[in-house]
Design goal:
Blueprint lengths: L2 E9 L10 E11 L7 E15 L2 E14 L44 E11 L11 E13 L16 E12 L2 E10 L11 E5 L5
Antiparallel strand pairs: 1-2, 2-3, 3-4, 4-5, 5-6, 6-7, 7-8, 8-9
Length: 210
């Protein structure tokens, strides 16, 4: 199966690690060659912006939207190409990759979907007592939102519906440690529904620092 992947990036961030101003936009698209055993496409856009607030404080807003589907003789996006949401890299306070549609058979595992929306806003500030100019650690208050859409059990819908997004708020600690970047977050879900898998405390190694 032949596949073509194209990408575009615009990066105006002032630093690679823990930026404080500027923006980052990225578009990634992929499509299988017509006539392949499976014919499908995926398109994902991510955009973020940092706003310096003075006194080593920063605001960040971020959004992401992804869509995919089959074409030609393929009716839908292959399941192994589905989008997922939930967890420290998307919607904190919910277990990793659990939001959205589930399998119709026991044990009703999350199966992802062919559309995803993620939203994030953060107020970033230094650790109390940290030395001026410390660029290896930071704290943030955050608001996360997101959902996955597509066919399946307990699906929030087969098309994007912003009313179905799940939200959480919390406090996060990020550290560029000697063993690599790590993050610890404590979050509270704001509108979880029966069947949602929540997880208030999450720890992750290798998280993005921008």
């Amino acid at each position: 199966m032949l596949k073509t992947t194209l990408g575009w990036t615009q990066d105006s961030l002032n630093r690679a690690i823990f930026p404080t101003k500027g923006g980052l936009q990225r578009v990634i698209g992929e499509i299988t060659v017509p006539g392949s055993e499976l014919e499908y496409y995926k398109l994902n856009y991510t955009g973020s912006r940092y706003f310096p607030l003075g006194g080593s404080k920063t605001a960040r807003v971020k959004g992401e939207i992804g869509i995919g589907d089959g074409y030609g003789d393929t009716e839908s996006l292959p399941f192994y190409q589905n989008f997922f949401a939930g967890g420290s890299r998307s919607v904190r306070g919910y277990k990793s990759r659990t939001l959205g549609p589930r399998d119709t058979a026991t044990p009703f595992d999350p199966i992802g979907g062919n559309q995803r929306v993620l939203l994030n806003a953060e107020y970033i500030f230094p650790l109390p007592g940290a030395k001026p100019g410390n660029q290896s650690q930071r704290l943030s208050f955050f608001l996360d939102g997101g959902q996955v859409f597509g066919p399946g059990l307990d699906s929030p819908g087969e098309t994007i519906d912003f009313a179905e997004l799940r939200y959480s708020i919390g406090l996060a600690f990020n550290w560029f440690s000697p063993v690599g970047p790590l993050a610890i977050s404590v979050a509270a879900s704001l509108n979880d529904q029966p069947g949602d898998d929540t997880e208030p405390v999450q720890f992750t190694l290798g998280v993005p620092l921008r």
